[in-house]
Each structure stands twice: as structure tokens, then as C-alpha cells.
């Protein structure tokens, strides 16, 4: 093999390893974001229910 071919193989391996590392980091970040989205949706639903209860109490107290 020529030096150019060896360099090509070396660079290909290094770039592939770098791409895999980047992909792994991005994948981990996406999983974290998805988990946070689920938590946020659950919290929003909980707060929405509390708000509905509070509004109903105010309406009952004011006679509406």
C-alpha cells in the first residue's frame, strides 16, 4: 500500500470514530431533552388541574 492509501485509511478511521462520538453525544442529549419534555408535560397537566380547581372555587364563591 502506498503512503497515500495508508493516510486515507487512517483518516477514514479517525473521522469515523469522531463521527460516532459526536453521534453518541447528540443521541444522549436528545434522550435528555425527551425526558425533560415528558416531565414538563406532566407538570403542565398537574398545574392545569390545580388552576381549574382554583378557578372553580372562585366561581363558586362569587356565585357565578
Description:
It is a single chain. The chain is mainly alpha-helical. The protein is built from one helix and no strands.
Give the helices and strands as they follow along the chain: H
Radius of gyration: 27 Å
Biggest β-sheet description: none
Query: Stretches where pLDDT falls below 50 for ≥5 residues?
Result: none
Oligomer: single chain
Question: What class, by secondary structure content?
Answer: mainly alpha
Brief overview:
This protein is mainly alpha-helical and 64 residues long.
Which secondary structure elements does this structure contain, and how are they paired or packed?
Blueprint (H helix, E strand, L loop, with lengths): L2 H60 L2
Q: Which descriptors would you attach to this protein?
A:
mainly alpha, 1 helix
Amino acid at each position: 500500500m502506498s503512503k497515500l492509501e495508508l493516510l486515507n485509511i487512517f483518516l477514514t478511521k479517525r473521522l469515523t470514530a469522531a463521527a460516532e462520538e459526536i453521534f453518541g453525544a447528540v443521541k444522549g442529549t436528545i434522550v435528555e431533552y425527551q425526558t425533560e419534555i415528558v416531565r414538563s408535560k406532566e407538570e403542565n397537566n398537574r398545574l392545569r388541574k390545580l388552576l381549574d380547581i382554583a378557578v372553580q372555587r372562585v366561581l363558586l364563591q362569587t356565585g357565578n
